Amino acid sequence: MSQRIMGKTIGRYMLLAIFMVISIFPFYWMLIGATNHSSKMFSKPITLLPGKEFITNLVNLNDNIGIYRVLFNSLLVSGAYVLLALAISTAAAYVLAKFRFRGANLIFLLFMLSMMIPSQATVIPLFKLMSNFELLNTYFALIVPQLCYPFAIFLMRQNFMAFPSELLESARLDGAGEYRIFFQIVLPSMKPALAATSIFLFMTQWNNFMWPLVVTTSSEMYTFPVALSSLMGVSFTDYGQVMTGITFATIPIIIFFLMLQKHFISGMLGSALK
Q: Which of 140, 164, 185, 192 has minimal Cβ neighbours within 10 Å of its Cβ?
């Protein structure tokens, strides 16, 4: 019996190891491409060892798109978006979860229905709005128009719904104001949900391509998706530069996720159970 159990355990670990290799290989191939010349990516046999062309690819990439400016733009836009969208989503979710007023369920239903509207359908109205206010090619236009994120409101509301309303009533009886209740009692217990929502918001804005492409008119305001798309030529594409740019675009997402992964897992699990 013990040998049978041991065989099953070994089989599970082997299966997990295979899936791990499959999952990690695209990142390894990205690093291989960033350290080799573009021609070696399609050579036969396939090159699977790091090369010595990373600095050359980085210099060429910076000459073409200004990688450090693009990195600054992406970090600024994504960071500001996460902070502002998280504040708006958290406040809206708390009101919809813990305050009883006429039309609360209808408002929440409208938020959910808005998730079914393709984002491309809002591009033209938002573009005209930014153009009328002469805000094109600004950080304001990149950040503000998409701050209301329905999924973030839904995720936070599900966690607020599980918070005991008796604690809120007890705090009100003790004379605590609504702002003190929200910031000192409710929010500290919502760290896992806040972390999970922050990761979703960060990845949404970091990978956003359509809206920055439409609203930016100069390369100085490009974010990573737009800047990397400009590297794809019609007749020739330097994949060494592309892979180097993708490496720079991937590292911040990995770091951000690793910083919040524990809270992310518990936040998602908590929202599912609640």
A: 164
Which amino acid would we find at residue 94?
Y
Residues 252 and 122 in one domain: yes
Q: Please report, to the nearest 10 degrees, the dihedral formed by the alpha carbons of residues 54, 32, 230, 60 taken in order.
A: 10
Question: Which pair of structure tokens corresponds to residue 180?
Answer: 């003190």
Residues 6+ apart with CB under 8 A from 241: 38, 57, 60, 61, 64, 231
Asked if residue 25 is part of any domain, the answer here is: yes
SS3 81: helix
Look up residue 77 and give its two tokens.
């836009």
Model-level pTM?
Answer: 0.86
Place of tokens 């500290």: 188
Taking the C-alpha atoms of residue 104 and residue 97, their distance in angstroms, rounded to an integer, is: 9
Quote the crossing angle between the two packed helices 191-206 and 239-273, to the nearest 10°.
150
Q: Could you tell me if residue 57 is inside a domain?
A: no
The structural domain count of the chain equals 2
Q: Is residue 144 part of a domain?
A: yes
71-99 pLDDT, tens digit each: 999 999 999 999 999 999 999 999 999 88
Prior bond of 45 cis (ω within 30°): yes
Residue 31 sits in which domain range? 1-51
Q: Is the domain of 47 the same as that of 163? A: no
Q: Which residue has the tokens 């390369």?
A: 219
Question: How far is Cα 246 from Cα 134, in angstroms, rounded to an integer?
Answer: 32
CA distance 146 to 131: 16
Residue 82 lies in a domain: yes
| CA distance linking residue 55 with residue 109, whole number of Å | 52
